[in-house]
Design goal:
The structure holds two protein chains of two kinds. In chain A, 52% of the residues lie in helices and 11% in strands. By secondary structure, chain A is an alpha/beta fold. In chain A, helix 3 (44-60) packs antiparallel against helix 4 (71-80) and helix 12 (265-280) packs across helix 15. Chain A has a seven-stranded mixed β-sheet with strand order 1-7-6-2-5-3-4, with helices on both faces. A three-stranded antiparallel β-sheet of chain A has the order 13-16-15. The longest helix of chain A is centred in the N-terminal third of the chain and has 26 residues, at 12-37. By secondary structure, chain B is α/β, with parallel strands linked by helices. Chain B has two domains: 13-188, Rossmann fold, CATH 3.40.50.720; 192-332, N-(1-d-carboxylethyl)-l-norvaline Dehydrogenase, domain 2 (Orthogonal Bundle), CATH 1.10.1040.10. In chain B, 54% of the residues lie in helices and 11% in strands. Chain B has helices at residues 21-32, 44-51, 53-61, 76-82, 92-103, 127-134, 149-154, 167-177, 190-212, 216-237, 248-259, 263-272, 277-284, 288-303, 308-317, 323-332, and strands at 13-17, 36-40, 71-72, 85-88, 111-114, 140-144, 158-163, 182-187. In chain B, helix 6 links the parallel strand 5 (111-114) and strand 6. The chains are: A alpha/beta, B alpha/beta. Chain A binds chain B through residues 357, 369-371, 373, 375-377, 379-386, 390, 392-393, 396-397, 400, and chain B through 6-8, 103-104, 107-109, 133-134, 136-139, 165-168, 171-172.
Chain lengths: 546, 338
């Protein structure tokens, strides 16, 4: 599969101690420097107290076996830190950083990787399904057809040879990293390292593979600055050592199912820091390339949980959801089985790769300006002090990079049958009750019927508008959306909608379509929101930033 | 490569684009601050004229003779190579071709500050957006506010805003241009500052009109307060922060226009006297406030922003309303909540 040298990540285990040392040294040095500059705000006593307080508050709400220290440890630290001398504080800081770094740091076992890439699909098949070996083989053959990778794939593959790539996908499901991993391996790309929620490591099925395939652990329950800094520096050290990575720049799975327009800049900024450090150090192949990728599902495994969370009227959304469909093995199995058997495709699309300040990059790894002229990326990091990092400037660059990623997500979105039909139906509902706000509309529209004629007419206009956007390069159409007749497209969406969710989104009722699950209908329609495709002008459209 | 005189060394190399009066004055300001200054203009005749002895005598008659020691760059490449901080001072209608010429030579390290008021007529793009579209560098800013060229040359106090999201731009512009006669204040709201400056230029025409119609002190106060509120709405409609309108680039500029009876204000007075917009332009030799008014009226319509004054002024320029009608209409608006 790998024409060139062994993928970089195969050396991970031999470099692991050095990586951990790097992370520890950088975080401790940066903290000591800050403490020197502003002792009142960033003095070590204050920092250690804050960490202890934050951890105690968190553990007060509930401990878990994933915790590295118990409540007593933090309590003792809080009591002692005031009496410690500076040397003891530095030593304590170093110990904490080391402990966090070890907790975060992943593993990579080439054997497990090779095993997984050959055997994992069938292993999953066996786990998910009690079918006969013959059907299993047939279905697995189809899995390749079911996952389609398009867009700038070749471009990304070439850049992986020239520098370090960071794949930044849209995020809808915990299956995303599995899907990306599978698809990239099948496309002959090297494996990526990525941060995964620590809770995923407690799932017995995924944990073994996660542990051994280069994933590192992100404990989202820990909110204090020191831990976040360890995570960022860890990512930066990996990128600096040319380990290809994957970040989900939206931060968490999209609750509304809208294509992410707000990009979190923390982790994304580590790509820039790593790139600048490489340039300053005069490394060969110093550049980090950011590769936006959209993942376009017909159905989303966790749709019901994410939708319910998005629509909570009390507004108390959960940042972490641990008890969703992903934690129920039976549901995951049903979902994957349906996907394999029911002949619908998962579309992955790479946008044009970007440099760390958001310029497009060509296949040779050169940054280009708007007119396609090559740019010298290093010049962007020249300031009064020569070639160097500049926190304020670099934060602005990262913000611009985030905007470029969001624009790419929008352009590379693939409009699939379920989203298109849901959008048309929902827009008709808004037109029926223009005075209703979203919640009222969702309550009254259950059981509502729309005649096929009305729906077909609306769909024809919607597809014409989408086609115009596709011609302008603003969106892509799934094959069925581009080619099927209107009636067939509706039937296709109904078939897919009816196969997985506990209450189907829509179903056929004689000459009409009945809305069976308005919440999910709205949720799937959101994928095409923000493109000026609405015709109905009702209050429900304006909910939650529609 | 841009190497010489990087900021931080205390002496910078400053490049000025545009050999018009404003460009020459700002070049002189930087020169008096001890910097190496290079001047370039896409109109090579204008530059050649500055080089000839006869022209030197001629410009010396005007209040802004070219300061001694300013060097003339033959090409944009030479300008970009010699200087790290560039200041662009050309009329907004000429900005695009100038930006295209600079686009071929400016790299990611350059700091580019413009002193351009108005929006590009065909696209309604603010000057910083035009520069962003054509240049590699992101370090773009604006230097705008109630600065009067004559006052600056005389050494009397002036103030302006340096607007940029990059602190480095603020520092570089301050190093290049700030002095006892020019106080510079930073503001990260670049779009807001550009729109406030444009709106102040447009509304100065209205101010001139009101002065000529002799509304009285109270009527004038009403108009100025309304103009400030309208500037704030236009700034917000364009993605800036409302409070930027009440700062130097907006309200500050409106006041200096009135106090100095500048061209936009004179144009309003002439409109009130019954002259046609074309006659006014011919008499005054081009009125920035007219272009600003037309652009902002379009922007307000596009963004659905309330802009009674600007729209009324645009109607005068389009010939669909007379100056007297406008005064009536505008004063009749309101008497609701402030």
């Amino acid at each position: 599969m790998f024409a060139d040298a062994e993928p970089r990540i195969f050396q991970f285990m031999s470099e692991r101690p050095a990586i951990l040392r790097d992370v520890e040294d950088r975080v401790v040095e940066a903290r000591l420097e800050r403490a020197r500059r502003s002792p009142d705000r960033d003095g070590l006593e204050y920092v250690l107290n804050e960490v202890a307080y934050s951890e105690m508050t968190r553990l007060d709400r509930g401990a878990s076996d994933l915790d590295i220290f118990d409540y007593g440890h933090w309590h003792r630290l809080a009591r002692q830190v005031g009496r410690m001398d500076e040397a003891a504080r530095v030593a304590t800081l170093r110990e904490l950083v080391r402990a966090y770094a070890h907790d975060v740091c992943g593993k990579f076992t080439p054997g497990v990787y090779k095993f997984a890439s050959k055997v994992l699909p069938s292993a999953l098949g066996v786990l998910f399904n009690a079918q006969s070996p013959a059907t299993l083989l047939r279905d697995l053959g189809k899995l390749g057809e079911r996952v389609q990778v398009g867009g700038a794939l070749d471009h990304v593959r070439r850049l992986a040879q020239r520098g370090t790539i960071v794949v930044v996908p849209t995020h809808s499901s915990n299956l995303d990293s599995v899907a990306v991993g599978y698809a990239l391996e099948a496309a002959g790309m090297p494996p990526l390292t990525y941060g995964a929620g620590k809770n995923l490591f407690s799932n017995p099925l995924t944990s073994f593979f996660m542990h051994n395939l280069g994933a590192y652990k992100v404990d989202r329950r820990i909110r204090h600055g020191l831990y976040k800094e360890v995570l960022k520096v860890y990512s930066e050290v990996l990128l600096g050592r040319r380990y290809h990575s994957l970040f989900f720049p939206g931060g968490t799975r999209a609750r509304s199912n809208r294509v992410e327009s707000h990009i979190k800049l923390g982790l994304l900024g580590t790509a820039l820091s790593a790139n600048v450090r490489n340039l300053v150090a005069g490394k060969t192949n110093p550049n980090v390339y950011v590769c936006p990728l959209t993942i376009n599902y017909h159905l989303v495994l966790e749709a019901e949980t994410l939708c319910a969370d998005h629509l909570r009227e009390d507004g108390r959304h959960r940042y972490m959801i641990e008890d969703d469909e992903f934690s129920q093995m039976g549901t995951v199995a049903r979902f994957v089985r349906n996907m394999m058997a029911m002949e619908y495709t998962l579309y992955l699309r790479f946008g044009t790769p970007l440099d760390v300040v958001g310029n497009p990059v060509d296949g040779e790894g050169r940054s280009l300006d708007r007119h396609g002229r090559p740019l010298d990326l290093a010049r962007f990091f020249f300031g009064p002090a020569g070639l160097a990092e500049d926190a304020q400037r670099d934060a602005e660059y990262t913000r611009e990079l985030g905007d470029a990623v969001a624009r790419s997500f929008r352009r590379e979105t693939v409009a699939v049958s379920t989203a298109v039909v849901a959008f048309a139906v929902f827009d008709l509902l808004v037109g029926r009750w223009p005075q209703h706000d979203l919640w009222r509309l969702l309550r009254v529209s259950k059981g509502e019927r729309i005649t096929r004629d009305e729906l077909h007419a609306r769909l024809d206009r919607l597809r014409a508008a989408l086609q115009a956007q596709a011609d302008a390069g603003e969106v892509h159409l799934a094959q069925q959306v581009a080619t099927l007749g209107t009636a067939a497209l509706v039937d296709e969406a109904l078939r897919v909608f009816g196969m997985y969710h506990t209450v189907p989104v829509l179903h056929a009722a004689n000459d009409a379509i009945e809305v069976a699950n308005p919440n999910l209908l709205y949720w799937y329609a959101n994928r095409l929101d923000g493109r000026r495709l609405h015709e109905a002008n009702g209050h429900a459209r304006n909910a939650r930033g529609a | 490569m841009s190497g010489t005189g990087a900021p931080g060394s205390g002496v910078a190399a400053v490049g000025v684009v545009g050999a018009g009066r404003w460009g020459r004055v700002l070049a002189g300001q930087a020169r008096r601050r001890g910097h190496d200054v290079w001047l370039w203009d896409e109109d090579s005749d204008a530059l050649a004229a500055l080089r000839s002895p006869a022209a030197k005598r001629k410009t010396a008659v005007a209040s802004a003779a070219l300061e001694a020691g300013i060097q003339l760059a033959r090409t944009p490449a030479e300008l970009a190579e010699r200087s790290h901080t560039l200041l662009v001072a050309v009329p907004v209608a000429r900005l695009r071709p100038v930006a295209v010429a600079l686009g071929a030579v400016v790299d990611g390290s350059h700091v580019v500050v413009h002193a351009v008021r108005g929006l590009e007529p065909s696209t309604l793009a603010a000057p910083s957006r035009v520069l962003r579209e054509e240049l590699a560098t992101r370090k773009i800013g604006a230097l705008l506010g109630p600065v009067l060229a004559d006052e600056l040359v005389r050494g009397r106090p002036n103030a302006a805003v340096v607007a940029s999201r990059f602190d480095e731009v603020e520092r570089a512009a301050t190093l290049a241009f700030a002095g006892d006669n020019l106080l510079l204040y930073g503001n990260p709201d670049l779009e807001g500052v550009e729109l406030a400056a444009t709106a102040a230029s447009a509304l100065s025409v209205g101010l001139g009109l009101a002065l000529a119609l002799d509304l009285g002190p109270a009527g004038l106060a009403l108009l100025i307060a309304r103009a400030a509120a309208e500037m704030a709405r236009l700034v917000e409609a364009g993605g800036g922060q409302a409070r930027t309108a009440y700062g130097l680039a907006g309200l500050g500029f409106l006041i200096v226009q009135r106090e100095a009876q500048r061209r936009d204000v004179q144009a309003g007075r002439l409109l009130a006297a019954g002259r046609s917009p074309a006659e006014v332009e011919a008499e005054l030799g081009g009125v920035d406030g007219f272009r600003a008014t037309e652009a902002l009226a379009k922007l307000a319509a596009e963004r659905k922003a309330t802009a009674h004054l600007t729209r009324a002024l645009a109607a005068i320029l389009a010939g669909t309303m007379s100056a007297a009608d406008v005064a009536q209409r505008v004063l009749a608006v309101g008497s609701g909540r402030e």
